[in-house]
């Protein structure tokens, strides 16, 4: 895939305390439902924090594109996060999209970045199919965790300005 900064269009969204509260309620429910299950990706930090990050990213993605957010619990890997997308949320704007070996090759993965503890502005960067993300050049192991693919933003497809940006 040829990277082009000219075609890349990032979308910004400013969240608020009400949305954060809604996302955190979902995060708490998710954490309660899996509190006895070990993390499958060797994460050693606060598990509730990971659920907060993910739930808020999903809520923001759904708001940006006017999708219904299901607020699902106990559906890990069995249904998409929002519409047909797997939403990956990272807490730093410079972070790449992460895709793991057990992620679907057919699913589109969208990158959202932001951290409510620092700023209420979030960014929706783009998307890539899981199979396209699994290129050897992006496979890396960080922090002693299992290797995963870290896709740079310039290789993500833009959601664009079309009437239906999800028609791929």
What keyword list fits this structure?
168 residues; single chain; 23% helix; alpha+beta; 3 helices; four-stranded mixed β-sheet
Widest sheet: strand ordering: 1-5-4-2
In total, the number of domains comes to 1
What is the residue-averaged pLDDT? 84
Q: Helix tally?
A: 3
The tally of strands reads 7
Describe the structure.
This protein has 168 residues and is α+β, with helices and mostly antiparallel strands. The protein has one domain. 23% of the residues lie in helices and 20% in strands. The protein is built from three helices and seven strands, in the order βααββββαββ. It has helices at 17-33, 47-64, 130-133; strands at 11-14, 86-90, 97-99, 108-113, 121-129, 139-140, 148-151. The protein has a four-stranded mixed beta sheet with strand order 1-5-4-2. The protein has a three-stranded antiparallel beta sheet with strand order 3-7-6, with no helix packed on it. Strand 6 (139-140) and strand 7 form a beta hairpin. Helix 1 packs across helix 2. The two termini are 16 Å apart. The model is unreliable at 1-7 and 161-165 (pLDDT under 50).
């Amino acid at each position: 895939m040829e990277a082009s900064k000219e075609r890349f269009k990032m979308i910004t969204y400013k969240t608020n305390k009400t949305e954060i509260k809604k996302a955190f309620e979902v995060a708490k429910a998710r954490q309660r439902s899996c509190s006895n299950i070990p993390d499958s990706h060797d994460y050693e930090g606060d598990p509730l924090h990971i659920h907060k990050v993910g739930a808020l990213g999903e809520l923001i993605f759904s708001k940006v594109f006017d999708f219904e957010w299901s607020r699902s619990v106990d559906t890990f890997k069995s249904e998409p996060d929002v519409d047909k997308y797997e939403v990956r949320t990272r807490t730093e704007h410079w972070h790449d999209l992460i895709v793991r070996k057990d992620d679907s090759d057919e699913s589109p993965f969208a990158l959202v970045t932001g951290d409510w503890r620092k700023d209420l502005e979030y960014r929706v960067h783009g998307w890539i199919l899981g199979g396209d993300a699994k290129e050897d050049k992006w496979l890396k192991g960080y922090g002693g965790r299992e290797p995963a693919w870290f896709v740079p933003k310039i290789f993500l497809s833009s959601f664009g300005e079309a009437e239906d940006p999800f028609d791929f």
